[in-house]
Amino acid sequence: xxxxxxxxxxxxxxxxxxxxxxxxxxxxxxxxxxxxxxxxxxxxxxxxxxxxxxxxxxxxxxxxxxxxxxxxxxxxxxxxxxxxxxxxxxxxxxxxxxxxxxxxxxxxxxxxxxxxxxxxxxxxxxxxxxxxxxxxxxxxxxxxxxxxxxxxxxxxxxxxxxx
Length: 163
Prior knowledge:
The protein is about 70% helix and about 0% strand.
C-alpha cells in the first residue's frame, strides 16, 4: 500500500502537497521503491534476452538465462542508477545552498529517486512496443534536474540567525 501511495505521489511531482507526502515516507521505502521501479524498467530487456536466438547465454536453460540476466544486466544497472541518483542529489545540495534553501542530501536523494518514476515508466512502455537503446535513459537526467530545481524552489529559505 505504501508503494502505491509513493507511486501516486511521485507522478504528481513537483506538486507541493505530493512532495511533502513523499518526504514523510522513509528512506528504506524509497530504496525498495527504486528496486521495484528498476525491475519494471528491466522487463523489456529480460523479454529480449529470453527470446534471443543468438548471443551469449542462448544455449542455457531458461532458469540460468534469468540468473544470467540479473547478474549481468539488472545488478549493474541498479548500481549505476543508485550512483547517478547520489551524484544528482549531491549536485542538488549545491544548488539548494546557492538558492539558500534548507535541504539535506537524504531528502534530495529521495526526491531525485521519485522524480525518475515518470521517465522510467515511459521508457518501459516505449521499450515494450518499440526497441529502444538503454542510452535513451540518459536523456531523462535533464528531466530529473529540472524537476529537482522546481522542488528545491518550493522549500523555504534558510533563516539567518542573529545573535
